[in-house]
Structure formats: structure tokens, C-alpha cells
Amino acid sequence: MGGAVEHRAQHANNTPKQVEVRMHESQLTSDEVHPRSPCLRMCDKIRGNLLLSLTVFGVIMGAVCGGLLRLASPIHPDIIMVIAFPGDILMRMLKMLILPLIISSLITGLAGLDAKSSGRLGTRAMVYYMSTTIIAAVLGVILVLAIHPGDPKLKKQLGKGQENDEVSSLDAFLDLIRNLFPENLVQACFQQIQTVTKKVVVENPTEEPTNVTDSFFALMNDTAATTTTEIKKKLEFKDGMNVLGVIGFFIAFGIAMGKMGEQARLMVEFFNILNEIVMKLVTMIMWYSPLGIACLICGKIIAIKDLELVARQLGMYMITVIVGLIIHGAIFLPSLYFIITRKSPFSFLAGIFQAWITALGTASSPTPTEPPLSTLSISSAHFKAGLV
Predict the structure, then answer these.
(1) Does pTM surpass 0.70?
(2) Residue 100 in contact with residue 278, Cβ under 8 Å?
(3) Residue 135 belongs to a domain with what CATH number?
(4) Greater confidence, 17 or 338?
């Protein structure tokens, strides 16, 4: 009995094992897979980045159509206004969403961080902002001294001018601090405070003569000046959103809400939903942006009276600005990104390419902040890897 069992065990061990091999259908065919043509790969890339491709196409078409329509000059101002009207609507829509976008994104981002992480992130962001600002300022001064974009003949024609000693660096710095802490948050959405100096004529106090001799000399010196001019400073509000005060308030609001924990869960959910709604609105507007940018560029080109004269006057200025942007954006900033994160900066720069094109077409500083925020979830991993 034992021998039979042992014989069966040996027979089972000698039996070859069956292995199931599954092959893909593409491997069963004898035909070789041919690589796709470059045209098809290019079409796939354009289809994958359709919005970016349409935006670039809008910039090109706006410049081309503007140049062609200049051949039909003179064009009535009303026709130019109608051509540029879609671009005006685009600018209005983008500016309309700046405030809710700042509020929702700041509160949503800071409410999810603890105090330690937000403090470390804020410190590093401030150091990064100050360092890049100093680098940009030094680079601008060097390029201006090297290229000399201005016309030296204008200085001889205009003269030295008048120096304005009334503007003080201390006043500008104190205005910056005042705007950081606005007294009225609603007013900060459309006004900011500024120190204004005015010249006031003040009469000098005159002493009454004590005797006849003094009265005689007072009458003889009647040509002496009895008034003086003094410079008085006062605070006035000027038009323009106080972005610094709005950002400062909502940063503090988001950090305080994050410290409350479970008690502020309902508010966190509210601002998360608000952020999603604003992002959907931004996405809808960005699909309209190719048409608006094309019309805006076309209208601006047509409105220029003498394009050759403007190009000749601003040619060196444009070269200076473009060279500075290339050096700062293509050398300094990617180098800082690589030093901090030890990652390739090209993937990060590709994520904000939409903002570059929007800034080129709209010539506005705040509006390009909206396109990258709609895709911030894609590049946030690269950002947090180096800062958090």
C-alpha cells in the first residue's frame, strides 16, 4: 500500500506542469506594427491640447487679419470698435472672475494645511518672490544700460525737467502697509489708499509794531512776502482693486479656518464648492478666449495710425523687453526651479504656457492668473515636491 502511494507521488512529480500563456491579439498577427506618421502624431498632440492650439491660432489670425485690414484703411472707428468688441467682452469676463477666484482658491488651499506647513510654505514663497523680484530689477537695469532703448534726441528736446521731491519712499512704504490692512474690505475690492501731497499757501503771522519807528520800517518793507507755501500730506482713495489687502485678509481667513478643524468643516465644503464653480466658469471663458484674443489683437493693430512709425520708435524698447523676458523666464526661473526641486522645469513650464499666450494676447497682468489655476491640480505635485 505504501509502495503504491509512493509510486503515484513520483508519477505526479514527473508529470509536466501546464502553464497558461495568454497573448494579445496584436501578437498573434504576423504583420508588423508600423509606426505612425509624424502628421498623425502632430494631430494627436493638437487634439490633446486643443485649447492651447486654438489660443495660439487666435493670436496668429488676429495679427494676420489686422495687417490685412490695414490695407483697406481708412476704416471707420465704429467698425474698429465692432471688430474689437469680442475682445473687450473677454477682458471684462476675465476681470469679473479675479476676485472670486482669489477668494476661493486661497481659502480652499490654506484651509487644508496645518499651521506648520502653511507657515513654511508662506516663508519660502516670500523668499522666492523677493529673490525673483530683485533678479528681475537688476536684469532690467543691466539691459537698459547695455541696449539704450530710448531716443537720446528726446532728452535734448525735453530738457532736464522738474524733479519731484514731494514723492517720498517712506510714504510709498507706509501706503503698502496701509493697503495690507484695509479698513473696509468691500471698499478694498475697488479702491486703494495713497498718500497725496498738496501745496498750501499759509499766511505768516505779523507782529504789531510797538512804537513809531517800527511802524515806519513796517511800511517801508511792504514788499516783503507775507505768505509762504507749505507741503501738506493727506490720504486719499484712488480707483483700482486693493489686491494686497484682499489677499492678506483671505490668507488670514483661510489659516484661521484651517485651525478650527471639524468646527469649520461646513465652511470648508462651501468654499470647495465655490472653487469648483469658479473653475468651471474659467474653463468656459477660456474656450471663448481664442476668438476674443484674435479680435482684440486685430482691433489694436487696425487702430494704430502709423504702424511703421510706432515700430521704429518702440523697436529697441520691444527688443529690450523681449530679451529680458527670455533671459528671466527661460534661464533664471527654470534654473531656480531645478535647484529647488531637482526636477526638469519643462513639464512645469508647459503647464503655464496657456497663461503666457493669454498674457500675450490680452496685455494684462491679472487675467493670465486664471488659466493656470484651472489646471493647478496637474502641476501642484511638482510644486509641493519642492516647497512642502
Answers:
(1) no
(2) yes
(3) 1.10.3860.10
(4) 338
